[in-house]
Amino acid sequence: MSPANHGATIQQVVFVDGVRTPFAKAGSALGGARADDLVVKAFRELLRRNPSLPPDRIDDVAVAATTQIGDQGLTLGRTAAILSGLPVSVPGYSVDRMCAGAMTAVTTLSAGIMAGVYDIALAGGVEHMGRHPMGEGIDPNPRFLAERLVDPEALQMGMTAENLHDRFPQLTKARADAFAVASQEKTAKAYANGMLQGEIVPVAVRSPELGWDLVSVDECPRPGTSLAGLATLKTPFRPRGRVTAGNSSGLTDGATACLLANESSADELGLAKRMRMVGFAFAGVAPEVMGVGPVPSTQKALDRAGLTIADIDLFEIHEAFAVQVLAFLDHFGIADDDPRVNPLGGAIAVGHPLASSGIRLMSYLAKDFENNPSTRYGITTMCIGLGMGGTVIWENTNFQGGSA
Amino acid sequence: MSTEDVRTELPSAFAGEVVTHAKVRLLELPLAAGRLALITLDNDQDHTRPSTFGPGGLTALADALSEVAKLADIAAVAVTGKPFVFAVGADLSGVDLINSIEAARAITELGHRVFRRLGELPIPTFAYINGAAMGGGLELGLHCTYRTVSTGAAGLALPEVFLGLIPGWGGTWLLPNLIGPANAIQVIINNSMAQNKQMRPKDLIKLGIADAAFEPADFLEQSMLWTAKVLRGEVGVSRPEPDRQSWDEVVDAARAAVTARLHGATPAPGVALDLIAGAKTRTRDEGFVAEDEALSALMMGDDLRASLYAFNLVNKRARKPVGVPDKSLARPVTKIGVVGAGLMASQLALLFVHRLEVPVVMTDLDEARVAKGLAYVHGEFDAMANKGRLSSDRANRLKALVTGSTSKSGFADADFIIEAVFEKLDVKQQVFAEVEAVVSDTCILATNTSSLSVTAMASNLRHPERVVGFHFFNPVAVMPLLEIARGVQTDDATLATAFAVGKALKKSCVLVKDTPAFVVNRLLTRFLGEVTRAVDEGTDFEVADTALEPLGLPLSPFVLLQLVGPAVAFHVSETLHDAFPDRFYVSENLQRLVAAGKTGVYVWDGDGKPTVDPEVSALYQRGAVRLSAQEVRAKALAALAQEAQLMLDEGVVAAAEDVDLCMLVGAGWPFWLGGLTPYLDRTGTAEDINGKRFLAPGVASTRV
User: Residue B25 and residue A212: Cβ atoms within 8 Å?
Assistant: First the structure.
């Protein structure tokens, strides 16, 4: 690279590796752990798995959390770097885009890599919803309601999901429940096939009453979930509504981390290039139907990349609510049970520690690519509170086909 | 034996015990290595109250191990602690309650019975030493098959010998058989005798005590991963077999060193060596029985009781000095003045700036002395920075805080002035008068006098209430004692401020009355006087100087004389003789020694062996009364007993405990003497001389 960066060509970003802590029900198996410690465990494991990376080569660290208070505050990207034992020369910062926090950490760092200002970057996300319930300490500006800037229901994610059912009457509760059952089945199958265990970093957690434990497995999945079982669940957001705990992601504790690099640094250091970033986009929608956000963000990302939805072979779409996935699939004319969609299951089964989920989607997509070398392009996409969607398009480095 | 039996045997020995619970959790190890029963030791308090083992804690652990032993499908058992603490051994607060050899034996046997279960399970056992592991805590780890240690662990030691005990819950048998007798002696005896030196985590690896070390950030996770790899055979642990050929030789050499140092003054090191010697051939059962016998005997001995008493004085009473005005009366101290720039003054300046981090102004009569004093302080900070004990930024900060001047005008805005000028009353009075002309009305004037009257020093001042004695011991940076002397007119605010400053200097402060030579110098001078008198009257130097060996003092009397310097010792003896002519002896021979410019009575040969300087022998004019060592010792102890009682009667300090604290931290007298008065009590000297004990039976002694 030239001493000054003028005229440097755009760098290709590769996803090197991703890990996560187990995902646990809020305040349960990981209840005794601090959020910052969860990030630290993930970072350290990531570095252990990539021993050829000298830690001082990491140019920046971004960590996402939605509620940046207490152990999720204090510029988590920097504190987690220090607590992980990274050299003091490695800087860090915090990111918040609610559920797409970790996705934004990845896209922001990747933009830096593309621009040539970073070679290697570390991204992370965490949400300890047991310690930090959704909405903790928020202070919405009264103008939101006084000036009707947003619908009063926009801040209650379950209500926005009900709103989505209203907007698209064809998205019935039956379809949502069927999607949820499939998510549980795909997750159970992925576990049985050993597809998920590898990315999980065991975490020692102390309970003052019970002593130390080693948490190694996800706590959230409910294998054996049936349509009949789901039919009995309450609809907490509306009387006789459609959104239940069974067709939504639950409140979850967990952290994720991934390593990003430009392609030449990855080659130089012998780092894996598991997938290549093609592009990304974020887009806004009405906050009261935030679940539809992935539709415009995906369209925008495809347009900018010069691709169409037909080019996408794999979809890791976040399952905040089944209805929100269905809204996306319907829009793009994809069947509810299309095998290209969330082949390893999703958040309805595995859980959704808000700001950390974006990186989990990427780790899953990297595995999907490995499992399917005939696929070339895939996306990770998610809906975001206050009416947004985010989409990242990735290219399979294992792709062996001739033409797209 | 079942745990039920344990309970009935020791019904309520340690009432009020903070019980360490043993919490069992079953979990799946990584790499599909099987199930682990993980026992967390936790007394449900924060890290400031580390987990200890009393009968309740041992019983809880026994219950946990019984539960674990019933589990059919576990691959391993591991023990770890609450955050920052593994376990710190026996609950010594209960020792006072053990008043029979049977009770002592019951608790030692209980420890063995519980701990050895861990080592004798049919499956591998692991200790994850996550934090402080002392005494019985570390021994519990030794019972395990494998040990990991956190690189962040602090407080790793077998300190029993330091306290007059032995690591008798398996330590003296398990450790030498694990790491060989030489390393075991280092850990059990040498560290204890080197001011209770702690080991670092890397020492545990180097010595072979721990098999693997992991960083604290994910210590337990990595320990469990390591466990899984050991169980799967992916990681092997090789330990060299201790060399049994040289075993006796190693123990004998250590015994010679211990004898040379202690002359049998206290039993624990020798008992520990006997057990380490025995560990060469004893079976596990025999080794543990030998420990039970030895440990229960030591538990009933006065040395242990005196050591625990001393330990409490140094760690508790020193932090809460008795008779001190409320700390809310203390005034802020934001600038210090030091009068004088000689060696003592420079050491004081160094200490004050290092600990208080406020500006310190040194003054002396001429530029050269000031420059020399400043150079000393700066040089010390540079040396600390070079050794990595100070960052260069901090060294810069501290150096910039010290300034020097030939004028006292720099004292104008100081809050605390200490003088360390020539030890003469009129000189010090004049210094204080000059200082008072410059400083505010509330600035404290402290004197480092060792023997002059604080009250007299203040007598001509406009504000005598601001004067206080602030008596350090040499070397100032090292010796923990600070005698703070209250003059007749010293007010509460001055005293409170003096104690606040003393505490900030990290000294052990004791309030003393303004009496000649305060506590330590008065007792040492009286005691040295008896020894020098014996020599003057005809006793051999060697006989007199070895007379106190059975006490195991840090220095023999004439070596102490050499360290203090004959001139200073003579000066103090004169001052005390003036005050108490009947009791304090002034040696004409010592005066001759000073006049001849001798630094002491000994010369050292190339091997560091002292012999009496022939020139000194020639100087000495001596009588013909040759006392035995025993007679010299009896006289010296009688003098100490009399002087200590008189000091209490005069109210020099609040209690005998303060006398002992002063001797422990000011003279370095040993724990097993309890400082001074417990030893005088238990030898009967106090009773013989004063007709009464200093301390009630059972205090610093075994209740009979």
Answer: yes
